[in-house]
Amino acid sequence: MRVALFVPCYVDQFYPHVAIATLELLEKLGVDVVYPDAQTCCGQPMANSGFEHLTHGCNDNFVKNFSGYDYIVSPSGSCVLHVKDHLHASDENAATHIRGKVYEVVEFLTDILNVQSLPARFEHKVGLHQSCHGQRGLKISQMSELVAPPFSKTERLLHMVRGLELIKLNRTDECCGFGGTFCVAEEAVSVKMGVDRVADHVAHNASYITGNDMSCLMHLEGIIRRQNRPVKVIHIAEILNAEK
What we know:
Layout: E1 2-5, H1 9-14, H2 16-28, E2 32-34, H3 44-48, H4 56-66, E3 71-74, H5 77-86, H6 92-99, E4 102-104, H7 105-112, E5 125-129, H8 132-137, H9 153-158, E6 165-166, H10 182-185, H11 187-203, E7 208-211, H12 214-227, E8 232-235, H13 236-240
Parallel strand pairs: 1-2, 1-3, 3-4, 5-6, 5-7, 7-8
Helix pairs in contact: 11-12
């Protein structure tokens, strides 16, 4: 199994340690990981802003870099969902193959590797933020508005981590307000939603907020810093890769 690591722009620029943790985690689980070093943006920011017709160059470059692998794995649910739903290219056969082989890291660990145990240890109280793209797009967890049995692939993996205490929140799947370009177009609404999200974790004494999307965690981190809240953010891959 040859797996290509897809690292989104903001992770590459601001949170490279998340990409490193994802790589190390996959290698610990015996995966042969390759990093295509000519990869760039997947085109999601342009598409979200109404300019999907200008993403052809991004799409063709993505196909060029990620063709020929068994799977493509990324620590970003929103970017993965964009590729799954919107990747089209000059070589449409290659694009179709990629759309069916790209996975967010938690998806990959549960759906493809079927991980049953992890050597991770993280002795902290952790709150889980279930991002909208992962929850409603990738079906990583159940939506509370549906009358259906609850599930969370992320929670399942967190329960394998020794020493971790997963806290209960009042609103388990509420949006943080980031929403990509939404936080720019509707700044006040976005901030208020983020403030509420942070407050729920703080009220339940979380030491860390984790999730599948570093973009949402970045939004919450900005609010935490401005309010000087006693909580930190950490990507799920960092916890699953932790050893103490």
